[in-house]
Amino acid sequence: MGSAERAAVFDVDGTLVDTNHLHVVAWWEAFRQAGHQVPTHAVHRAVGLPSTDLVAHLLGDSRDKDQDAGISAAHKALYGQYVDRLPALPGAGPLLRRLHREGWAVVLATSAGGAELSALRRALDADDAITATASADDVDEGKPAPEPVEHALELAGVPAERAVFVGDTVWDMLAGSRAGVRCVGVLCGGIPRTDLEKSGAEAVYADPAHLLSSLRGSPLA
């Protein structure tokens, strides 16, 4: 699809749009409705996994798997209350536009799909700068598997060695590292710097605005 020389691949939730804690509340309530008390700190660390993987990660293999679909559906409905007013994180749109102007293929790689992905794109308001989107609907395995990042690179037509992946979770850093791309972490999703670095982040910034202001000395220079 793309003819750019290099690709900047971005996670969206918690990286470009301020949604992680909304997801935490929605998942916490979905679990509560199904009779499970899951601490919010545990939910927070699982955010970024695909829905089915998140439920399995938090409830374990001994859970009643017949509940999985209902819990995921409840999360989707609860989170859906917020989608018309999701806020982009500071500097998110300007960062994507700057990279686009500088010749990067900007690709979104997200576990969101459908209406949720449309809402995230509306929040970003930077469609003119986005080359392609690799969503959960396009891959068999979500992060931390490398497939979402590899699919994003295919869409951009750029090899891993000429790409950088920006994300906010451990799952993002693991997926990017396994795909062979350089990884940049942001702290705006609420995951500590040390966790991001241990999982493969080469550099860590506060948020998109911080990355934008530090672009010259970053892996995206």
TrEMBL record:
The molecular function GO annotations come to: hydrolase activity
SUPFAM superfamilies, sorted: HAD-like (SSF56784)
> What are the UniProt keywords, alphabetically?
Hydrolase
Is the keyword RNA-binding in the record? Answer: no
For this protein, the record's PANTHER family field holds:
BLL8046 PROTEIN (PTHR43434:SF16), PHOSPHOGLYCOLATE PHOSPHATASE (PTHR43434)
The protein here is known as HAD family hydrolase
Give the species: Streptomyces purpurascens
